[in-house]
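Changelog-adjacent note: as of this version, every example in the card shows the full chain rather than a window. The one below runs 363 residues end to end.
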Amino acid sequence: MKTCMRHTALAMTALSTAVALAACGSGGGGDPDGGSSPTIGLLLPDATTARWEAQDRPLLEKEIKELCGDCSIEHANAKGDVAIQQEQMDSMITKGVDAIVLVAVDARSLATEVRDAAEANIPVIAYDRLAQGPIAGYVSFDGQEVGRLQGRALLRAMGDDSAGSRQIVMMNGDPSDPNAAQFKKGALSVLTGRVKIGKAYDTLQWRPETANMNMSGALAALGVGNIHGVYAANDGLASGSISALKANKVQPLPPVTGQDAELGAVQRIVGGDQYMTVYKPFGPEASAGAAMAVAAARGEALDQVGKDTVRPIGGKQVPAVMLTPVAVTAGNIKGTLVKDGIYTVEQICVPRLETACSKAGLT
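Full-length structure tokens:
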């Protein structure tokens, strides 16, 4: 590949993860003779979880363009449909893109397409979720640590009752998402023996409305006054659960966990409806994902980007970047999300939250 290269250091936030890779070229791309500019496919799983289109997509596109000014980006969103994402993968392979960044709707169901891409010499970077098959690299956060952070926070909010007399409901994520299993495993490592799990649900496609329905069912089965905490695997499930609790006149609300630091969740935390969320700094993840994608598209070694390793099902050990998540409660919103520029105080502190924001030290 006839390209000139420069090395770009990418800050990985206070967690001190650094990424370096060769970035700019003079017309190389996937063609070894330098005949075309690289094209990178970006396949996102759904529009239900706000982060994909609001945070990850613009950050990834920005980072890719900064690293590779002549790269083009082909974006598609599967809207939670496995068959649609399979078609999108096939389309990317047919177009002959130089690399694909994939957030799989269903890791197992996309394994064939990942293998087809590899056979077509198109490297696939699994982003946030570990896809099955011969991927080329992986960028994500420690999923079990996410669950541990949620579990510890829930115990703390309930008074850390070591007698195990507190009863909780678990709203786990989509079982087809390998991250959901990691979150659940991490949470159970903290909660088992410390609380009674009254009801536990897996939530297909992470749908808040499904969590709402399941929480209503849990309240009917367990009793309005017998739920002392809710483990919700992400902010969407937290929202659905809290809506059901309010509709059933549960007062006061039990502590509810979350993940993804959605703006609505942050406002619920300030207002006292949700206890915590897990912040996975999108900037460092996008930086690492873009670095891997550009390196892969240019045929460069990914172990210069990913110093960790993972072994996906149906694939060999590959380079990975594993980042550290952060627990966010009302007391550290300013020092995390506001400090990192994710949200401004003005975005969080709408008029109805004026008093609560003052109490949380945001105004």
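Structural remarks: Residues 199 and 218 are 6 Å apart (CA to CA).
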